[in-house]
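Annual report, structural modelling task.

Input specification for the zinc ion complex:
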Amino acid sequence: MPELPDITIYLEALEERILNQPLQHIRISSPFLLRTAVPPIGVAQQKRVVKIRRVGKRIALGLEAELWLVLHLMITGRLHWREPGAKLARKLGLAAFDFPNGTLLLTEAGTKKRASLHLVEGEEALSRLDPGGLEVLDAALEAFATVLTSRNHTLKRALTDPALFSGIGNSYSDEILHHAHLSPVALTQKLNPEQIGRLYESAQGVLREWIVRLRDENGAAFPENVTAFRREMAVHGRFGQSCPVCGSIVQRIRYAENETNYCPTCQTGGRLLADRSLSLLLKKDWPKTPEALEQFRAVRRR
Ligand SMILES: [Zn+2]
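The model returned the following structure:
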């Protein structure tokens, strides 16, 4: 799912292209996309884009007459910039937003259509679409610490809770925790002030570093290569590869739809965290060290 750094780059590319441009026409091809009926989508046409903003992981296009078009890309939704009047791809195309200088296309890969579009009127209606998480890049340490320790959650859960922190998801939470040398399953209320300070510095540092990296990589082009998995990431999406800091094998905790990746040496004092699918199989014999796990996997492969 595009997270804060990816959305930031989208916003910058959109500002370049559609700020102050009139939205001439909206074409929607998926019956599942639009989640609001009032105001009717037609009223957004022929309005100029006057503001562009990130709301959590959503992209909000502010139009004249206090209207907000709010896009949530979910996991596989992506934006593309094409020539004026560009056609919508039959299977992937969800919507097209026509401007005099080009067309903004919204596509979504896969069969589960989860991306959403809301049209709302006024700031208050817009704020109802905001899960309310803290903007980490604008927050002082004290505010960060207060939010972090407001409930006793694992760090992974706390960082990815949109009601606690804005715009951070599975990818960047893995990267932030690795950078901070903290375990994804450490409990927020058990952290000492030094660890909280480290997490705060890492959250700001990792998000800023990635914004700069993505901006540089992208240059003046429209961001077409938005992905949750990037070669330069330290642990996210790198299960089985070596940690760039210490060389240990990156491990994972799997869930139904995604996984948490971490380095046992950098983050958990060498301990492996239970991976449900493996631990069910092994029960009491759950390997305690990365070496034992490696051995176990090697035996199973034979
Ligand atoms: Zn490491």
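The chain has three domains: 4-127, 136-218, 251-301.
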